[in-house]
Amino acid sequence: xxxxxxxxxxxxxxxxxxxxxxxxxxxxxxxxxxxxxxxxxxxxxxxxxxxxxxxxxxxxxxxxxxxxxxxxxxxxxxxxxxxxxxxxxxxxxxxxxxxxxxxxxxxxxxxxxxxxxxxxxxxxxxxxxxxxxxxxxxxxxxxxxxxxxxxxxxxxxxxxxxxxxxxxxxxxxxxxxxxxxxxxxxxxxxxxxxxxxxxxxxxxxxxxxxx
Length: 211
What we know:
Mean pLDDT: 85
CATH topology: Rossmann fold
CATH class: Alpha Beta
Distance between the termini: 60 Å
Structural class: alpha/beta
Number of domains: 1
Number of strands: 6
Strand content: 5-15%
CATH architecture: 3-Layer(aba) Sandwich
């Protein structure tokens, strides 16, 4: 009976947390006014519109450089240029591609290392709205010295999240990953953060990110 009670409490707690997560992402909105920043970081993944949103911010001169983190190794620079449709002169001077990050943790370390290597103190973080809560936690794991302005990107489907089985599954998976990220955030040792971050900065200096 005690085990059943514990399981029931865990299920209720998880469900309430999930509903709070849904409310949080539903309450997100694309900022009407964006403060100027040093850099823009777009984290790739499921959900369209991220690259275009980051490119538009660069075109608006909201920052001097754009990092696209987590680029598939099979996608060339020319293909990226074709997708984001920014002037050749701007892409040549101001676009950086990160092929190293394979997940959100990698995105966070690569972005922080990129920002620190360039001396940036403020970046605009672009990712899908449902991914933003975890993205913010993961980047907090890597740094507390860089100001982050979130820029959530929304997928307009016209459907409720609970009426689309694929979307519902994705949200449940993302919420579960969010819980794991939070546990990492409160348990990871500061020394471990520094080791990981310093390793990533060394990679950037070695030109693993295309400047």
